[in-house]
Amino acid sequence: MTANINFVIPKNGKYANYQNFKGDLDKEWGFISNGQWAWIIQTFVRLSEYKNNIRLTSSESALEDAINVIFVDDYVNLEKKYTYYCIVIILDRYVYYPGDLNIIQNEAHKIPFSSAYIPLWSQAGLIPRKENLLTSNNSVNLGFFGLVENSVDLVAALERNFGNKVKVHVKGPNNWNDYREIDIAVGIRDFDKRKHIQKPPTKLLNAWKAGVPFIGGADSSYEQVGIDGENYLKADSEELFIAAVSRLISDPLLNHTLVKNGREAFENYTDDKISDRWVKALEEELIHFNQWQCSPHPAKALQVFSKYCFYNYLRVKRKALVLLNLY
């Protein structure tokens, strides 16, 4: 008998508004404002709508006779972990409690336990850019989609070099699906050339989907899915950022090329393609689940204990890094 794939969706905390959700992610995209919605609820809904042979269920807590898909924070609090088989969504956590399979959103995020790389879904309900290209005679609308604390100071850098010609639009949870008036999308966390190995390529994927040229920082995730100069521009310093903006303003052909190549690259990251990745990972995990069920209780407990030790190692390591001002 094939096991169910059970998504753990509690009724409290950041899941509480799930009871008000009517079932259309693209119309109700505003619900997707945290990791629990982006990864657990959205994945459950997308896979439920996708034609496959996997039996999906959801419950408020983990089930002993199913493969449970559970959010990283919820797994930490799960008692008697050895009685449950869990796929844990690691997200961007530095400290996490590993499960039987761990979903990572960046290929560079290596962990010493079983893992699968699956990119996050692109923005639900996305409104694409209008069909207009930049010209050197027009003002330029530059967009950052996300929380402003996760970006370099774009305004200061642009004002120093372009004055009022370039206007920065910060799109937050209320409108980060709207690319209609955006000429250039930017995703630069810092100019320190950090690779941010736990962060996803979502900002780049969304720009491709929206038909907007993208300037990204040194994030490893951008390099994994894109090609600098072909479907996005990499800028890991203020000088390169200003140069990239200048190129896009003055070179309509470059603008057109990045958009065209980005649309083609995005074909590998559509909802159907992400669903394919999920189905493949879940089908493989059904085999591992059957093997796990046959394992003796002491073996299961030992596996969980080893992961408990790793979890506490990460906690201690983070505290040390904080004390050294390295975190």
| Principal-axis shape | globular
Which stretches are low in confidence, meaning pLDDT under 50 for 5 or more residues running? none
Number of domains: 2
- Average pLDDT: 95
How would you classify the helix and strand content by structural class? alpha/beta
Fraction of residues in β-strands: 15-25%
Number of helices: 9
Strand order of the largest sheet: 2-1-3-4-5-6
Number of β-strand runs: 11
| Sheet with the most strands, sense and barrel status | 6 strands, parallel
Q: What's the helical proportion of residues?
A: 25-40%
Brief rundown of the structure:
The protein is α/β, with parallel strands linked by helices. It has helices at residues 35-49, 72-76, 154-162, 202-210, 220-225, 238-250, 252-266, 271-293, 297-323; strands spanning 4-8, 56-59, 66-71, 85-91, 101-104, 115-117, 140-145, 166-171, 184-187, 214-216, 233-234. The chain has two domains: 4-122 and 270-323, no CATH class; 140-266, Rossmann fold (3-Layer(aba) Sandwich), CATH 3.40.50.
List keywords for this structure.
2 domains, 327 residues, 37% helix, single chain, Rossmann fold, five-stranded parallel β-sheet, alpha/beta, 11 strands, six-stranded parallel β-sheet
